[in-house]
Amino acid sequence: MHPPGPDSEQLRVENAALRRRISQLERAQCRARCPDTAALLDNFPGMAYRCQNDNNWTMDYVSTGCLALTGYPPEALMRSRVIYSDLIHPEDRSRVWDQVQLALGEQRTFEIEYRINHADGEIRWAWERGWGLWSDHGELLTLEGFITDISAYKRAEQALRDHQATLRALLDTPEDSMLLMDATGKLIACNDMTARQLRRDRQQLIGSSLFAQLPTEVAANLHRQLKKVIASAEPIRFQEQYRDRWFDHTLYPVCNAHRQVSQLALYSRDITEQKQLERTLEQLAISDPLTGLFNRRQFWSLAEQSLAQAVRKRTPTSALMIDIDHFKSINDRHGHLIGDQVLQTIASELKLNLRHSDILCRYGGEEFAALLPETDLSTASETAERLRQCIADTPVETDQGPLSLTISIGVAELVGGFRTRVSTLLECADRKLYAAKQAGRDRIACWTPSDDELQRLAGNDRGL
Ligand SMILES: Nc1nc2c(ncn2[C@@H]2O[C@H](COP(=O)(O)OP(=O)(O)OP(=O)(O)O)[C@@H](O)[C@H]2O)c(=O)[nH]1
Predict the structure, then answer these.
(1) Among 161, 179, 333, 414, which residue's Cβ finds the most Cβ atoms within 10 Å?
(2) Two domains, one topology: 12-154 and 172-274
(3) What are the residue ranges spanned by the domains of the chain?
(4) How many whole angstroms from 328 Cα to the centroid of ligand 1?
(5) What CATH architecture applies to the domain 172-274?
């Protein structure tokens, strides 16, 4: 009969006490042998440990860094007052166990990141590197390693991730293209819109030269702007046509610690629709909506420039005032819409029969004005006669069938070297138009050198 043996709990307690004692002895031994090593471990910004491969990670030895890492003094862990596995965040416990066991099975070191519950109630991030120690018979004796607080690093990592997510969200605005390149034009980052516009895969673009992706002229212009930004360290805004679209670009400098422009950010917005609208508005501002000819305001502005040039070059300029005969009766008989069709047809006929350099406008109602640069009275009267003939010979096609029409034209010339206002020249032509109407219509009437009207009016304008 055997004497009653100690129960298993008693054995475990004794065993733990024995191990702690051994550990203390080892530490003392270690200090005696190599006092610097122990001091080094204690001064390390982290916790060196030796523990058992059990569910509690029972600590046989921890360095003084334990206090900073866990908030508990080393004795608390070494006397199992605090169980290390309880400090590991519940969500990380099994992962830690599995990773350690896997590494031990392969007899290699392990590195794990996990959360621990600090004594102050906060959750800290820990990084652990450990390894096993085996007896000559291959029996695992103990685990030892090092655990350090990486909370600051984790916070920075998270902040960086958040920052990157924000940047990515900004970069991936659906409408605008954004890219970052180095000072040689090599792409560092770009959003999906850039890739779509360049018709390339985003990943393929990174590392390639932006200039190589663009048509020669666009690349040359961008290169010029890039050099300007690098030299001035100031952003530049410019517009450019690329393929069939218009873009508004802003090129921003990105400076390094030495305040040199080391990278450039290009932000591009597709403004094609805006450009089209601008063009339409510009067109509307200068043209007559019914006939598409210049409106009166634009005519005056262009005519003033033309007259100024004529004075400088001492060349003659002529003006025609053109009016449809009995237009009121067309409206009265056929209605306003047919009247509009007639106006449109006459306008395009006049345009077709004048030179490209002549300035033609709808002056008002059924009246048109034309300024003929570098044209003397004789040529102008020939032109006017040709116009009259053309309208008289060509019935206007309308929804109510063809209509025969005539026009009357007054012609005036400003002789080369004279200086006058557009209004003066037109007034003279208008008087001649009145004369043509009075004389029976379907005819032209020209200012003749015997008329002193223009001379007199021009004289009044002297000194302009
Ligand atoms: N359909 C149409 N008619 C217009 C427009 N602007 C002016 N008119 C008409 O043009 C006519 C001009 O009439 P009048 O000034 O009497 O001249 P006219 O009938 O051509 O007679 P004469 O010039 O003396 O040969 C008027 O009935 C105006 O209403 C327009 O944009 N469309």
Answers:
(1) 414
(2) yes
(3) 12-154, 172-274, 287-461
(4) 4
(5) 2-Layer Sandwich (3.30)
Closest residue CA from atom 21 of ligand 1: 326
Sheet-wide strand order for 140-149: 59-62, 47-51, 140-149, 123-134, 110-117
> What CATH number does the domain located at 287-461 have?
3.30.70.270
| pLDDT value of residue 167 | 77
Answer yes or no: is the C-beta of 326 below 6 A from any ligand 1 atom. yes
ipTM for the predicted complex: 0.92
Q: Is 297 in the pocket of ligand 1 (CB under 6 A)?
A: no
Tell the residue number behind the tokens 């166990």, with chain if given.
Answer: 97
At 143-182, the pLDDT tens digits run 999 999 999 999 999 999 988 887 777 777 768 899 999 9
Q: Whose CA is nearest to atom 7 of ligand 1?
A: 365
pTM for the model stands at: 0.57
333 CA → ligand 1 middle, Å:
12
Residue with CA at minimum distance from ligand 1 atom 23: 325
CA-based radius of gyration for the chain? 47
Q: For residue 275, what pLDDT is reported?
A: 93
pLDDT tens, position by position, 340-384:
999 999 999 999 999 999 999 999 999 999 999 999 999 999 999
Residue 325 CA: nearest ligand 1 atom is: 25
Pocket flag, ligand 1, residue 437 (CB < 6 Å):
yes
CATH number of 12-154: 3.30.450.20
